[in-house]
Design brief:
By secondary structure, the chain is α+β, with helices and mostly antiparallel strands. Helices cover 15% and strands 51% of the residues. A hairpin with a 5-residue loop joins strand 7 (83-93) and strand 8 (99-107).
């Protein structure tokens, strides 16, 4: 059996620092790796103390260019590429009022059109202006939608999110400064 083990990997970008947890991958030769990479078990994490600025990753997704927020990041996932269990995914904006905390499962990640998510725990809190910053990086919102978001004040939702690229369902609580 052949394997790859990495320890102490640190990745730096202009405004991001990612400290990866130890990574272990075991396989039976290079041909086996090539043939079975999508079905091999992985255990991957981003350690406490890591921080990410989305704009550092704009080369992969140009919409991230405008997102210069500094996010504390922690993550742990395990499984295979097409069936990942996320036991921790947490982002906390260090200068704004944005927090994201998710646990759950992602299936079919290798086929972006067939991705299915099941997050029995998703908790997000922010304010309307910060949510607008994120949303307007990806979509054009009407002036009335922007005005409504701005008026909501603090926004939070906590519950269960599941679905695929065509159909998403959220069951839980949504609260705003204006009420629940």
């Amino acid at each position: 059996s052949t394997g790859i083990k990495t320890t102490g990997v640190e990745i730096s970008f202009p405004n991001s620092y990612i400290h990866l947890a130890d990574i272990y991958l075991t396989f039976d030769g290079w041909e086996n790796l090539k043939r079975n990479i999508l079905s091999m078990p992985i255990d991957f994490g981003i350690e406490e103390g890591s921080y990410i600025t989305p704009s550092d990753f704009a080369a992969f997704s140009p919409a991230l260019y405008k997102l210069d927020m500094l996010l504390s990041a922690q993550m742990h996932l395990e499984g295979i590429v097409n069936d990942l269990n996320i036991s921790k995914l947490e982002f906390i904006d260090l200068y704004r009022d944005i927090t994201v905390d998710i646990t759950g499962n992602v299936k079919h990640l290798a086929d972006s059109l067939d991705v299915v998510v099941d997050f029995p725990h998703i908790e997000v809190s922010s304010n309307g202006d910060d949510i607008m910053t994120v949303l307007t990086s990806y979509a054009n919102l009407s002036p009335s939608a922007l005005k409504t978001m701005s008026r909501l004040g603090n926004i939070g939702f906590k519950g269960d999110l599941s679905g695929d690229i065509n159909d998403v369902a959220f069951v839980g609580n949504v609260s705003t400064s204006a009420g629940s």
